[in-house]
Amino acid sequence: MGAFFLYLFKILKMKKYYSIILLLLIQFGFSQITTLTEDQLLKSSNVFLNKYKANNSNIKGNPYLEEKFKKGNLLFSNGKTYNAYIRFNVANQKFEIKKDLNSTANIIEIDNSVTVKINNNNFKNYSFNIKNKKIKSILKECLITEKYKLFYYPKKVIELPNKDGIQAPPTGFTKSPQSKWKDSGSYLIFYNGITYQVPTSHKKMIGLKIFNDKLYKKYRKANKLNLKKEGDLIKLVYYFSSI
User: Fold this and answer.
1) Which whole number is the average pLDDT over 43-58?
2) I want to staple 96 with a disulfide (CB 3.0 to 4.6 A). Which of 105, 106, 115, 178 is the partner?
3) What CA dihedral angle connects 79, 30, 13 and 7, to 10 degrees?
């Protein structure tokens, strides 16, 4: 690179052209900056832009992991980053990002080379199998060790109104039953190349044969283990990773 600019100096030999070379040097320097602009982000081959559409207001609730936008960033495998306000639409597996809270949201899809960080939680695209069914989904990384990997698998479904029995038709004074978004997420453990869906009962957990039975029972009693609590699962996996 130095030889190239020395060659230009020899050819030009005039001071009025030095500013052009200086401009080239500055431009080259800026190309090394790792922070992406919004325009660069949306043109990235790792991010796929979709037009923003409002959610279906006929469904009660929302399809987001958390409805409010939170500070976060997109981390690319080449070291580049993009800071934004972000929320995750669990239903369509896409992220909505804003440059600031007053700007218009963009919807993006990511490939597996991009990590999305929201409130210090990492989200990434993974492929895995559950009950012989191949699934590709965004997972929240809870704890990654050499032996075990613990994830939260966010999932939301639309729960239809209860149609049991005969209901009177809605009148001007009553509202018809409304569908609503319902959380259906679960925790996953990756171990020895197999994906295990964490059950809510200790009997079923022992049946997975992920952990030593005697040590699991001992740990459970000593720590009042609740398989529905993320913090308890993180401590459990950490314990068995360390022994």
Assistant:
1) 52
2) 105
3) 10
126 contacts 101 by C-beta, under 8 angstroms: no
Q: Are 126 and 139 in contact (CB under 8 A)?
A: yes
Quote the tokens at residue 227: 């398989």
**Distance (Å, whole) CA 208 – CA 219:** 16
Helix (H, G, I), strand (E, B), or coil: what is residue 218? Answer: helix
H/E stretch holding 120:
none
Helix 213-223, helix 230-242: angle, nearest 10 = 130
108-165 pLDDT tens trace: 999 889 999 999 999 999 999 998 899 999 999 999 999 999 999 999 988 887 654 4
| pLDDT reported for residue 197 | 97
Strand boundaries in the chain, DSSP class E: 47-50, 70-76, 81-89, 94-98, 106-110, 114-118, 121-130, 133-144, 148-153, 156-159, 180-183, 186-191, 194-197
The one-letter amino acid at 162: N
Please report the pLDDT score of residue 49 as a whole number.
43
DSSP 35: B
Dump pLDDT digits (tens) for 68-98: 999 999 999 888 999 999 999 999 999 999 9
* Residues 177/162, Cβ–Cβ less than 8 Å: yes
HSE of 131, CA atoms in CB hemisphere, 13 A: 2
The distance of Cα 75 from the centroid of its chain, to the nearest Å, equals: 11
